[in-house]
Specification:
Length: 546
Amino acid sequence: MSAAVSRVGVVGLGTMGAGIAEVLARGGHSVVGVEVNNDALQRGRDNLERSTGRAVRRGRLSEEDKAAILGRIELGTSFAGLAECDLVIEAVPERLDLKRRVFEELDTVCRPDAVLATNTSSLSVTEIAAATGRPEQIVGVHFFNPAPVMKLVEVIHTVLTRPEALTAVEELVGSLGKVAVTVGDRAGFIANRLLFGYLNQAAGMYEAGYATREDLDAAMTSTGLPMGPLTLMDLIGLDVSLEVCEAIYRETRDRRHAPAPILRRLVTAGLLGRKTGRGFYTYDGPEQVAEPGTEPGAAPSVGVAGSGPLAVAVIQAAERAGADVRFVAGDDDKARAVRDAVGEGVTGGTDLSLLADRDLIVEAVAEDVAVKRSLLAAVDDVARKGAVLATTGATVPVIELAMATDRPQDVVGLHLPDPEGGLAELVSTVVTDPEIAERAAAYLTRLGKRPVRSADRAGFIVDALRVPYLNDAVRMLESGYADADAIDAAMTHGCGYPIGPIADLDRIGLDRAVEVLRALYTEYRDPAFAPAPLLDRLRTAGATFR
């Protein structure tokens, strides 16, 4: 069927449209690219030259291949050149009025049997199709940026789309070596509906002073994401981000997509991200990097109270950093288990007095509030004056645990999203002594961790952003909009995530996800944080998604 689509038009040759034209030409199709005027056409030509030239420099194309690709693309400023196209893809800016005008024009010049497609990332395909006399021939075909690289294409059908038109687009996408995910017409489709809830929440956290922009981005890249949320919004364009959030919010009235006020203010000021040189970050100088931590020095003496996998990971990290580390376990059997895991070279036992001279004492027992409070109170009795006491509580306010001691000013939260990884969320409470917090950050740096500062709020940074996004994916699955494979494919192939959200839930554990969501809901009373019923049912049954 894809052979029937041989000549394809592309309206709009910005970064996205030029990328689509290149992909089509690479696939052997004749392409007609149309822009609004000669200046815009030249910019489109420059986009094509730049992208294919970059591929040549990186060894991905030969000069002959580049010439052949560009030779298949005919450029012009008249819609009349699209008259004999089998398929026309609109790729103009994300404004409904503009897209509808384009489709009105296409309806008059294109063959009656031609399929017309919109590359909208969030707008209603049905509303766009209504501007034509052929709504049954209209399909959404959402490529991801950069189109020559990203594998995913969301193919969107309306209630009127003819199966033949949909099949033609699906087969064309497959012939280009892309992964097609076909869904119905809902704002944001799969990828953007999930992605922008997360991005918008990150913008709101930054605006509220929850964490610095650098710490927010560092926290999330530590989970394997290709870039942090604020950096990604700058790359996408804050104007585009605002438009996508508004489109989804108009349809859903979901508070997660109500644009963060800072996003609207930045756009109003013309600070749109990389394309204007400034957004959340400034791009008129060197590449933005995360703020450096304290320079490493001598490792602190470390005490660890606990014997489970988290305690073992902390002990091993301290040992690798050359720290003098001791542990205390609950009984002799648990102490032997720790020694088996970390080796006989680490001092430990069952007497808390072993921790009396430690610089940093880490409570690393199970997520039971009563147990944690009792242990911290006991540690308080033996720890030396000035020691930093760290609790690994992840779903209860750190201040609630700190108040079990007589020195809450010396207590910080320490959350390791990946105990084997390099990131440590460092949480100060409303009474934490700033000097203690600074010392804790220095200790973590010397132990090989990258500390990111977080307010004492449910989920801290990583879980507060990651788990609601996973919950959104479950709600999408539960609604029947897309299956688990499509949802995971959308986020891995479309957004470059290392793992899809449904698979990620099975990996981190449904129990943990529900605990975090309940903590978030208790604190914020936002229905968006209530565990999806399907998630809660599977957790109760002890099941997984796959």
